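Posted in: Structural Biology > Protein-Ligand Complexes

Title: Requesting predicted complex, aspartic acid in pocket

I'd be grateful if someone could produce the 3D structure tokens for the following input. Sequence and ligand are given below.
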Amino acid sequence: MIMFHRRKFLQASLLSSASLLVKRTMGAVPEVEEGKTDQPIVISTWDFGQAANMEAWKILSRGGDVLDAVEAGVKVPEADADNHTVGLGGYPDRDGKVTLDACIMDGHLNCGSVAFLENIVHPISVAKLVMEKTPHVMLVGEGALQFALANGFKKENLLTPESEKAWKEWLKTSKYSPVINIENQKKDPNQLPGGPLNHDTIGMLAIDATGKMGGACTTSGAAWKMRGRVGDSPIIGAGLYVDGDAGAATSSGLGEEVIRTCGSHAVVELMRSGAKPEEACRKVVERIVKRDVERAKGLQVGFLALDKKGRFGAYAIHKGFTYSVKNAGIEKVFQAGSYFNS
Ligand code: ASP
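-- Reply #1 --
Done. Output follows.
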């Protein structure tokens, strides 16, 4: 199973970690020391963000551009057929179609996005082209596909035999129930409590050697979603927001909750008002929980943030949200703090 390999990779990486420039190496507030801006830096959601970070780091460490770095980084899980929540091999909607959402943004508010895109392995690259080549921010569905094909992308079947098998298994009950921290559980539909893998996303935030901020977010969204459903991930301000004057934020989890709170934008605005990254993430998580505490017990949302000084932090509704950090001094996966601790 892929998670087995990821864990091995994680263990190996932890053993080889360089000296850490953090106040605490474990726990919820792994912020770099005040005033230290150990840049470039790249951070991303979940432990599988480590492999993506390493790809982004190749570009950042040689002085490359932040958007090239985050694009290259998130292309790693997009191309990974064993990752069932991003790109190729993503679990399909309830009709058996894999539909992808992605967006990219820099600190000067340049941004591009695609949603409900089918048959293209790298939606993040299409989103970047929307930003660079069109007067628009967002293209969806058929129009996004047309744009991709006109720009040389090839149509591919994204439904792998494994994902198709999981979908057919799901069809037997057709039960839709999100599973908290499904990302950290064994990815076997038959062995999961409450049904197969439901959701997961890579959100990546970075600062390059020139101090330019950027971020990318890409996902196949909620598994077994209704046809046409779009989550938070491709929505600027929901799944991703970057403003070089304040900071950057991204999210993973139940997108509907993030959309209604304009989650990533809210996190960035809190940092602009002086909140540290983890505190900003916590305040938005609290807004989501406060709306319906009982309901929040059954759903997961996590935010990850990086401020303009290079400080980072994260917070989630439930325990188990992890994130990966890479700069010259840190190569590590952290546990985010959480509202509920059990
Ligand atoms: N936020 C994504 C969505 O709702 C999925 C996830 O991150 O779990 O589409």
